[in-house]
C-alpha cells in the first residue's frame, strides 16, 4: 500500500492516466514513429521514476544511498531516451553517447539494489553473501547461453558488439541479484523485492527483444516493445513506496537452494566440455562452483561452531554435566509423566574453598560430579546448577522408593575420599527429593520443593529427605522465614549479584541488572524467588529496596574508579511504586555516590502498575523529573494495556524470558519477538530481551532488531568481585585484539541501547 503522502498518490495517479493513454495509443495507433507519443509522452512517463526515487531518498534516511542510486539510474535512462529522441529526428542512427548512457544506467540500478540487499541481509554471516554470489553467478551464466545467437546476429565491429550487448548483460546482472535475494529470503521478502524482480526482468526482456529486432532490422520506434522500459521503471518506482520488511533471514535455513544452484552451475561446466559455449558462460559457471565450494567449507565450520555453542548452552563448563537449561529440556521431554528430582548440596563446601582455594574446590566438584553420574545410571540426567549444588532427574515413572534408593547410592558414592590440591578430603552431602507432578509440574516448582527438603535434611542431619506437603500447613514456616530475613538484613546476608546486559550490535556490556540474593550461612546462596514474595507482603520490602539501590549505586561508583562505565538496573515492587518518599531517597543516593540519574534504570513489572495508577504515576513522574529511566519488566506475563504502558513515560521494554528462551528454534516465539520489537520502537522504547540461553537465541534477537540482550549465555548473575574480573577480562581481550568496529552501516541511526560500555572480542557464555 502506498504511504499516506497525498502528493505521492497524486503523482502515481497522474502517471497511471498517462501510461494508459500511451499504451492505448501505442496498441491502437500507427506502428511507426509519432513524435508526440514516442518522444514527448514516452519521456514524460520516465520523469515519474526519477521524481519518485529522489523523493524516497529524501524521506527514507536509512536507505537514502540506495534510493539515490536508483534515482541516478532512472535519470541517466531518461537522458538517454531524450538524446535518442533528439538524435533520431536528424539521423536514423542515434549518437554513440546515447548507447553509453543506456549502459551507464545499469550499474546505478545494480548498486541501488545491492545496497538494499546489504541492508536487509546486514546481520548475516559470510555464508549469506556466498549464497547470493552463487545464485547471481549461476543465473548470469544461464543467461549468457543466449550469447552465441546474439553474437551471430549483431553486426558491426567489436565496439558495436560491446555497445549492443553491454546493456542486456547489466540488466541480467541486476535480475540475477534480485533473484538471489529472493531465493535466500523467500517468505521473508517484502513486496518491494517482488516489484524489483518484475521491473528488472522486464528491463532485461525488453533489451533482449530490442537487440534481436535491431539485429534483423525489424525494430521501429513506436513498436509494442516500447511499453517494456517505462513499465519496468514505473514498477520499480512504485515498489519504492510499498512497506519494506524488516524481517531478516537466518542463512542456516537456506542451504538447500545454494546447493542445488551449485549443482546446476556444475552441469553447465560439464555441458561446456561437450558443446561450444561463450567463454563468459564458462567463467561465470566456474565461479559459481568455486563459491559453492567455499560455502560448503563455511557451512561445515558454522555447523561445528553451532554444535559447540549448543553444548556450552546445555552443559556445565567445569564438570561437563548438564546445566539448569539442559535439566529443564530433559524434564520437558517427558512432561506429564512421573519423575523424581534429587537436589544435592555438598556440606561445608565453603570451608574447602576458603581453606584450600577455588582450584581445590573445582577439583572436588569435578570428582563428585563424575561419581554422581556413574552411580545413577544412563537413564538419569545429572546437572550442576551452580556452586556446590547438583541435581539428578531420574527416569520417567520413578516413585519415591526408587528415588530414596538413588539418594542412598549418591551418599555411598562419596564415602571414598576425594582429592583437592593433593589433599585427601572426606565429603558429605545432603539430598532433597521432590516428585512430579505431586510436588511440582515444572522445574522451578520441583527445585523449590526439593530445596526445602534438602534444607530440612541438612538441618536435621538425616542425609536425605522427601518433600512432605504437610510442611505447607499453617503459617509457622513463613513466620520463621520472616524472622530469619530480619536477622539476615541486620547481618548483611542480603547481597547483590549482577547480570550483564549486552548491546547486541556493538557487542558492548552497557548495563548490569542488580539481583538480590540471600547468602544464607547454612543453605548457601538463595535466589530472590524463594523469599521476595514473602517480603513483598511486609514492610521489609522498602528497606530491602533501599539496600539494593544503595549497594548497586556504590558498586557503580567503584566500577567508575576502575574505568568501567556502565548503567545499572534495579527492580522495584508494587509497594515501592506507591511510596511517595522513594524519589527523594533515590536523589540522595545518586548524590551521595556521584552517579548521574540517567545511569539508573528502575524496573517495574506489568502487574505492579495495575493498582493505584494515579499514585504510581505521581511517583514515576517525580523519578522521571530526576532523570531516572523506567523499564517495564517481564513484558508479556501480566495484564497491562497498551494505553497504560504509553502513559508511564518509560524508556525501556523488557520482554519476559518465556518469549525469548528458545526463540532460535521456535517460529512462534520469533513472531512474538518481532512484533514486540516493532511495538517497543514504535513507542520509542529501548528493547531488552532477557532469557538468552544459546547462541541461536542471541542471533535471532539480533536479527529481530532488539537493542539489549540478557541471559545465561552471555553471563550468569555473579557477585561484584566476579563481575569486575569478568569485565576487566573483556577489556584486556579487547586491548589484545584489533577492535571490530561498529558493525552497523554508516548511515544507520544510533541504537537506544548505546552508552559507555565494556567491549570485547567476544563474551564468555555462562
Task: Kindly describe this structure.
- The protein is an alpha/beta fold and 766 residues long.
- The protein contains 26 helices and 18 strands.
- An eight-stranded mixed beta barrel has the order 8-9-11-12-13-14-15-16, surrounded by four helices. A five-stranded mixed beta sheet has the order 2-3-1-6-7, sandwiched between helices.
- Helix 22 links the parallel strand 12 and strand 13 (629-635).
- The protein is elongated, with a radius of gyration of 34 Å.
- The relative contact order is 0.06.
- Residues 155-159 and 739-755 have low confidence and may be disordered.
Strand count, sense and closure of the main sheet?
Answer: 8 strands, mixed, barrel
- Radius of gyration from the alpha-carbon trace, in angstroms: 34 Å
Query: Which percent range fits the helix content?
Result: 55-70%
What strand line-up does the widest sheet have?
Answer: 8-9-11-12-13-14-15-16
Enumerate the spans where pLDDT stays under 50 for 5 or more consecutive residues: 155-159, 739-755
Through-space gap between termini: 46 Å
Q: What structural class is derived from the secondary structure elements? A: alpha/beta
Q: Compute the number of helices.
A: 26
Integer average pLDDT: 79
